[in-house]
Amino acid sequence: MTRNDLQKEVKMRFNDAAKIAYFLPQDIIDNTIKAFNVSATTANGYGALGAPSGRYFAPASGGSCIEAFTGQCGTTNLVLYGPNFARYDLSIVKKTKITETVNFEFRAEFLNAFNHINYIVGNAGNDVNTQADSAVRPSVR
Length: 141
Known about the structure:
By secondary structure, this protein is an alpha+beta fold. Helix content is 13%, strand content 17%. It has helices at residues 3-9, 26-36; strands at residues 13-15, 20-22, 90-97, 103-110, 139-140. The strands form 2 sheets. Strands 1-2-5 form a 3-stranded antiparallel sheet, with no helix packed on it. A hairpin with a 4-residue loop joins strand 1 (13-15) and strand 2 (20-22). The chain starts with a helix and ends with a strand.
């Protein structure tokens, strides 16, 4: 996959039965889990799940390159854009003067007025969130 191919696949997907939200298609997630499930005692080098077939994130070291330092076998950074964050807060205020020193104020505030659900991987306070290599399942529980 190229970076653009991967970016096109980043969408919110829901598994209603398991109540899980995913950012990537299930085939990429399953094949990435298989790619990281390695075994030194099998003929093909993969564990009980078998070898990946199709699209997946490859581990840093593989058969064609053993990584001795970060970035030796490929890129060190991959920037993807996730779903947009949207939150709408509304406020209505009406002030009425009763006397010169007394005011009446009616205030109504609606936080997240349209009840829009936002999903984010990592910390919402950061502009850029990174995932460690061990976090190969990009899902939200």
